[in-house]
Amino acid sequence: MTRARILGTGSYLPEKVVTNHDIEKLVDTSDNWIRERTGIYERRVVAESQVCGDLALVAAQRALESAGVSGSDIDLVIVATCTPDNIFPSTASVLQSRLDIQPGAPSFDVSAACSGFIYALGIADKFVRSGAAKRPLVVGSETMTRILDWDDRGTCVLFGDGAGAVVLEASENEDGIISSHLHSDGSFESLLYVPWGPGRGFSALDDKSGYIRMRGNEVFKVAVNTLTRIVEESLESAQVDKSEIDWLIPHQANIRIIQATAKKLELPMDRVVVTVGEHGNTSAASVPIALDTAVKDGRIKRGELLLMEAFGGGFTWGSALVRY
Ligand code: ACO
């Protein structure tokens, strides 16, 4: 059976660090409140000159390098983002050209908010299983701080910028993506959304309408319940016992949500990759950044069983069980 094996990983974080103390100067909040409720103590913020595609480019270059392949070896590009550089061309098409990826290879962006990377990985997996692609590049890249209302303490403390990438390769052995699961329920739109998009016309764009709005407490409750269900679905479908999971690589939104999922898996926190403290919620970039962090520091080793999961605006949610 053909599976999509992770050949290499890469990530990139902008240089500028914004701490909770920096945000204390902008809104009525405290380092203590942010740490206790979310686990976040700092986040990275893009330079004025950088766009999502710039972050994606460096993460992708690092993933190609770690995979030992070049752009011309890639035959599919998927970028997960809700903060693309342009309405079109897609960030993936821009990346295709900047990395000298084969002209004619399909490239497109995926919009599934914080679940975007899991969606992109699941789509790439299906391309590989069907024989439509042999070596996809899958990226999650976000400039979330560009769509934050810095007067809204309920959201501006939560998000950060960054990018992560993986190179996949069709493989006939047991390694790779064992199963992926993607879901959505659009009826929760009012809990987490950005009220403006280009289809509404520029006359509908005012000072605040391009920014994230969230009813955080309600999102929190649905996220915890939904992630519990998706973890069960992943294990059941692959007939894997929770004791077999070596690493949980969750979407990094809130340490309390992460702890709840780890508890469900009866997994000690030292088997969970946690980057939310130093990166905040980087939306579609959070899972590939966490993956790359733990691969590069030597925690995740070849042959280990990884469970990745995410939940985000839409609502969307998904998971991937991977033999690394
Ligand atoms: N600093 C200080 N006080 C604050 C802040 C802040 N930054 N933000 C809110 N508060 C206040 C509220 O006004 C409220 O005050 P009140 O009791 O006087 O009314 C109080 O703190 C409690 O607010 P809650 O919203 O109930 O706090 P909660 O414990 O739920 O934590 C949080 C808020 C951190 C946002 C949490 O709900 C959360 O993480 N939600 C999930 C977010 C998420 O996972 N999003 C995922 C997807 S994002 C995407 O897809 C793009």
From TrEMBL:
Pathway where this protein functions: Lipid metabolism; fatty acid biosynthesis
GO cellular component annotations of the record = cytoplasm
Q: Name one GO molecular function term.
A: 3-oxoacyl-[acyl-carrier-protein] synthase activity
Where on the tree of life does the source sit, at the highest rank? Answer: Bacteria
Every copy of the Beta-ketoacyl-[acyl-carrier-protein] synthase III N-terminal domain together lies at 108-186
**Keyword entries, A-Z:** Acyltransferase, Cytoplasm, Fatty acid biosynthesis, Fatty acid metabolism, Lipid biosynthesis, Lipid metabolism, Multifunctional enzyme, Transferase
- Record-annotated active site: 114, 251, 281
**Role noted for this protein:** Catalyzes the condensation reaction of fatty acid synthesis by the addition to an acyl acceptor of two carbons from malonyl-ACP. Catalyzes the first condensation reaction which initiates fatty acid synthesis and may therefore play a role in governing the total rate of fatty acid production. Possesses both acetoacetyl-ACP synthase and acetyl transacylase activities. Its substrate specificity determines the biosynthesis of branched-chain and/or straight-chain of fatty acids.
- What is the protein name for this chain? Beta-ketoacyl-[acyl-carrier-protein] synthase III
Tell me the organism: Halorhodospira halochloris (Ectothiorhodospira halochloris)
User: Which gene is transcribed and translated to give this protein?
Assistant: fabH
